[in-house]
Write a structure and sequence with these properties.
Layout (H helix, E strand, L loop, with lengths): L3 H8 L7 E6 L9 E8 L6 E5 L4 E8 L1 E6 L2 E6 L2 E6 L4 E6 L6 E8 L1 H9 L6 E5 L3 H14 L3 H20 L1 H14 L7 H7 L4 H12 L3 H19 L4 H7 L5 H12 L3 H7 L5 H7 L1
Antiparallel strand pairs: 1-2, 2-9, 3-8, 4-7, 4-9, 5-6, 5-8, 7-10
Helix pairs in contact: 2-4, 3-4, 5-7, 8-10
Length: 290
């Protein structure tokens, strides 16, 4: 949970100020991990920065809007949801906000052997790494630690590793992430599966999770969870002696009436009728028939 001061940073744009430092490190440099500073750039069509990099790497996340980056004479367009890592291989980098839709971004500068090793391990070798990575939450956690606890190297090391690992899997295994999410739901189907909890478990935003799941399974996460529960309920009706209310409770439906209506919508009959009409058929017969 963000502290009050950090919440203020996120919601305040002082007149004439388009960039705010949220943390500046005055401690001795830690050779393992050292975050020099972090800050927020507020939407301003006049925002322009041509500065030298102090840290070995600059991590950025575009909250919303659009901006531009020039690094090593290459131009990049930064859009909402973009994650960017800039390696300190040049003297200066140039930023400027889009005139029509100026961006808001979070950034922090980081150095140290840990980051060097992680970047090498995960194959992040380009001078500028830019990708769509809808994970504002990862940045918020790092900002929260810096603002509330200062440079807690142990916690920050864990969060930086978690961030880069998430980027690696998102980049290299995006095609498998939806399957991992589906497997997680299947394994927790008897629990109260909430989208917020699933997103938190995989360090992705609810929006990214919803889009990824819908694109791969042509149904929403909620639709899949309900369908999965109803198929299990159908089996329990035939193979177990549970009462209808007990089945509804086991599968975390809010009440028996809601469960019965959902069941009828999917299978055409209420649970009581289904159990009565199909009592002489096996579950395998029903699966084959339906």
């Amino acid at each position: 949970m963000k502290s009050r001061r950090l919440l203020d940073y996120y919601n305040m744009n002082e007149k004439g100020v388009n960039e705010k430092f949220c943390f500046v490190n005055h401690q001795d440099i830690n050779p393992i991990l050292y975050i020099s500073s972090c800050g927020i750039v507020y939407p301003d069509k006049n925002y322009f920065s041509n500065k030298s990099m102090v840290s070995d790497y600059l991590f950025e996340y575009i909250v919303h809007g659009k901006g531009h980056l020039i690094s090593s004479e290459k131009k990049y367009v930064l859009n909402e949801g973009d994650f960017c890592i800039i390696r300190n291989t040049q003297k200066k980098i140039t930023y400027y906000a889009d005139e029509n839709f100026p961006y808001k971004k979070l950034w922090f500068g980081v150095s140290g052997k840990l980051v060097d090793n992680l970047m090498e391990t995960y194959g992040f070798s380009d001078d500028v790494i830019l990708k769509k990575f809808d994970n504002l939450f990862a940045f918020e956690k790092i900002f929260s630690v810096l603002e509330s606890s200062g440079h807690d190297a142990k916690r920050l090391s864990s969060l930086i590793h978690e961030l880069l690992l998430s980027v690696y899997y998102d980049r290299n295994e995006e095609g498998f992430l939806h399957q991992r999410i589906k497997d997680y739901i299947d394994e927790h189907i008897f629990y109260d599966c909430k989208i917020e909890d699933i997103a938190l478990n995989f360090s992705v935003s609810k929006r990214h999770l919803a889009r990824l799941f819908k694109n791969n399974y042509n149904q929403t996460v909620t639709e899949y969870i309900n369908d999965k529960k109803l198929i299990i309920a159908r089996r329990l009706l035939l193979e177990e002696d549970f009462k209808i209310s007990e089945i509804a409770e086991h599968l975390n439906f809010c009440d028996q009436s809601y469960f019965s209506n959902k069941f009828k919508k999917k299978f055409g009959v209420y649970p009581t009728e289904y159990r009565k009409n199909q009592s002489n058929e096996t579950f395998d017969d029903l699966v084959y028939k339906n």
